[in-house]
Amino acid sequence: MKVLFVGTGLIGGSFSLAMQKHGLLTEAGGYSRKMSNLDRSKELGIISVAFDNLEEGVKWADWIILSIPVDVIDRMLPGILDIIREEQVIIDFGSTKGKICASVRNHEARARFIAAHPIAGTEYSGPDAAFPDLFTEKLMIVCEEAQTNQAALKQFEQVCKTLQMNVEQMGAEAHDRHLAYISHLSHITSYALSNAVLQKEKDGHVLLDLAGSGFESTVRLAKSSPEMWGPIFMENKQMVLEALDSFLDYSTQFRELLNADDQEGILQFLEEGRKIKRVIK
Amino acid sequence: MKVLFVGTGLIGGSFSLAMQKHGLLTEAGGYSRKMSNLDRSKELGIISVAFDNLEEGVKWADWIILSIPVDVIDRMLPGILDIIREEQVIIDFGSTKGKICASVRNHEARARFIAAHPIAGTEYSGPDAAFPDLFTEKLMIVCEEAQTNQAALKQFEQVCKTLQMNVEQMGAEAHDRHLAYISHLSHITSYALSNAVLQKEKDGHVLLDLAGSGFESTVRLAKSSPEMWGPIFMENKQMVLEALDSFLDYSTQFRELLNADDQEGILQFLEEGRKIKRVIK
User: Fold this and answer.
1) Which residue from A81, A166, A198, B149 lies 20 to 30 Å from B22 (Cα-Cα)?
2) Is the ipTM here above 0.90?
């Protein structure tokens, strides 16, 4: 199978390396608006063919996998479906699913499209961040699977299973709400924490070179790519606002407990939060 | 040297194991209000002698190391200094330093006390969480060092260096402000995030078993011991409120940018936050 990777960074690049590792690719092609990314991806063995023309790349491929910012997926996806042939499949790996699914809901070639989201990643980005085991024992979520050609879906799920991934099906709206809470919100708190601390450092009141691993853990997601994450927050605006408001409510509640020296209330707040032990090992 | 560990959990227990590993202890004693902790600490090799009477333990020891909640340190420290002999040294490992230092500032045995804080830890607690390499290449902060007997301080710093720790001296107020931003705030955002997400899970809208490593990273500190952390927030109330307010300002600023669909503003917010790359590898 020949796969065109539109976007060969952390996610697309790792998926190519994983498919290669499991002997699932005859050839990996790449398309990017940044020629330097394609050159680097070739050097790293992520792709062997680089296309500077998207249409040519699409014609060449059996599968087309989009691992690019979600707003670019929105703009690009209908046009690719316009030119796709019957046996081809296009898959997107965007971190939001509602708007992307809506953008092609009534497209005549909708069945050739698989709306997917691998729950895997690191705070790094670009081809150099890619590695073949990123997806091992991780989850692949597929949305609106009933609108996808079932043979194509089955083949995709088989590839995921070969990569030792679990596959779950989920509605696009449920996906976006879920991700707002367990991923998008975590990124916002990291970026906000980073901003607050960096500002204090500028004022000369904090020495960041003394920070321990706890700080690092809560702030590492702030290293993620703004180009990827800005569009995610905007596409999932309503759910993200809902999640952020809930978080701000709890943070403000803690502030009030502390300001009132409410020892019992603080302990209860911490005990409630600590119940996350049940799910996070 | 015989050391009495008052508190033999993650921090005290690890310090005992580290000193033993480097051949710095002839005997490790333990005191705790929880007898079960002492029994377990003996099983784990953290201590060999258990005291159910604090005064007896203090008399027995050359050094006394306090690794217990900071409010308990406040209450316990003056009483121990009352009975300490000239050649003995008491060291506290509390995560706040201002109130603890103030509590003994005018004590006639003040010079026998070292106010220290090892910048090391995990989200786990109790004797079972202890391990000998917790402190390797970590930082030991010492506050108000001028008030401590210089020979005792030198000996303590030598022990830290043998444990491959760096030692830095810092004012108690500077320490508490610094820690508010790079440690205490991180714990609060983790607990608040955990509360928000667990509430949503109760409502049936979030499936926590699908959470990825990014969520785990931002929320893991919420597994920390409320018994240790409640008093830290309360003792460092003013600095923590200042740090939390700055964080809430930035979070609210992000909320407004998103609500206003301000793409440029969002990208700028993320780019600013991303500058943490400079300090977090």
Assistant:
1) B149
2) yes
